[in-house]
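tool=predict chain=A
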Amino acid sequence: MKWLILTGTLFRKTGKESKTISNAKILSCLNHDRVVMTFECSLLDGTKCYSSNVLGPKEVIVGKSVMEQGLNEGLRLLKPGAEAIFIIPPFLAYGFVGDRKMIPSRAVIVYYVNILQAK
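tool=predict ok
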């Protein structure tokens, strides 16, 4: 099942529409959990920025690793095996500066994430 997470709101894809899920009980990645995930990071217009196909799976520690705040918050909503699409606004991503490489200033970024494992 894929989840679309847009600034704190969960949507479950059901056919052609998305249904808002309230009080979803899918929390399992907690602070200090080591999460291994495949991902694709792109801009809102579809321009691909980073991908695990090129960089390899990403390993992060929830709450401790240096990563976008929106991604950190989103990972806390998922459990191993979950797939999600995170739409992260600039103030929870790279802000006014961007990452000075692939992501411009004030960019909304989209993460397609698949959690491989969490320990």
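The longest strand covers residues 34-43. The chain is about 10% helix and 40% strand.
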